[in-house]
């Protein structure tokens, strides 16, 4: 159970980081 919880948290964090970088890239492209 703890391993599954850690894995899901890792995936959630990586997803948030990817969205953040994608947003920064878009803003950089606009300006």
UniProtKB/TrEMBL annotation:
Domain of life, source organism: Eukaryota
Protein's name in the database: Uncharacterized protein
Organism: Anguilla anguilla (European freshwater eel)
Organism ancestry: Eukaryota, Metazoa, Chordata, Craniata, Vertebrata
């Amino acid at each position: 159970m703890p391993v599954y919880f850690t894995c899901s948290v890792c995936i959630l964090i990586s997803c948030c980081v990817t969205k953040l970088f994608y947003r920064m890239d878009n803003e950089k492209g606009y300006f």
